[in-house]
Amino acid sequence: MPSLYATIPRMPTFLDVSTWPRRDLFEFFRTYENPYFNICTQLEVTKVLEVLKTRPEVSASLTYHYFALRVANEIEPFKYRLRDDQVLIHDVIHGGTTVLLPNESFTFAYFDYQQEFARFMPDAQASVRAVRTEVQAFKPLDGDDRIHFTVLPWVSFTSFAHARNKTRAISVPKIAFGKFIRQNERTYLPTSVEVHHAMMDGLHVGRFFNRLEEMFAAPEAFM
Fold first, then answer.
1. What residue spans define the domains of the chain?
2. Assuming Cys at both sites, which of 105, 144, 163, 164 could form a disulfide with 169, CB separation 3.0 to 4.6 Å?
């Protein structure tokens, strides 16, 4: 018999902005016409690709989506979302990414975060296959409990900017991956992280990149 408590939805958790050390920064940036900042860098993925050579059934693209989503769930500000004058804290954040279609248009595939790589990957790959092969109306999800990903495998970019609109997803972080760069027998992945400045600062994005670098340097421990 299922537990009664499993059917009771959790109450949303809000940050106590009045005691938040960033309160003044939150108030300062949340009314900006353009409150976003973006940091781009190149992350070494040599060891990740070496592991994937022995696992050809695994998507390389979704592998670095997994690592980025895992890190985002570790760093609390990536789970903050703007609710008028409040900050909602999601328990878990999931993912959604762009998928190129045979007609050269694109759509979105969505996947839930699962900490175990072996559980995450089959579900994420199935989601991407489904939107590529099934005729569906273009209908993006409106929730903000996700990271918005995109991939540009044709461009080794050094800067990036996203399209934005004024919906409830206004404070969702956006992460972009580019074309691999080969230098001195090593492979690098251009990576862009764009966030709402009322939610976090360069310190938090720096922590994101540093943790992602650690995981990419020892991928076997997570895959």
1. 12-221
2. 144
Check if CATH label 3.30.559.10 holds for domain 12-221: yes
Would you say 108 and 137 are in contact if contact means Cβ atoms under 8 Å apart? no
The Cα 66–Cα 52 span in angstroms is 14
Among candidate residues 187, 155, 158, 180, the one with its CA nearest the CA of residue 44: 187
* Cα gap 159→192, rounded to integer Å: 7
Residues in Cβ contact with 68 at an 8 Å cutoff, skipping those fewer than 6 apart: 147, 149, 175, 191, 212
Supply φ then ψ for residue 187, to 5 degrees. -120, 135
Token look-up 């421990």 returns 221
Q: 1-19 burial string, b = 16+ CB within 10 Å, else e? A: eeeeeeeeeeeeeebeeee
Q: Is the pLDDT of residue 10 over 80?
A: no
pTM across the whole model? 0.92
Nearby residues of 57 by Cβ (< 8 Å), 6 or more positions away? none
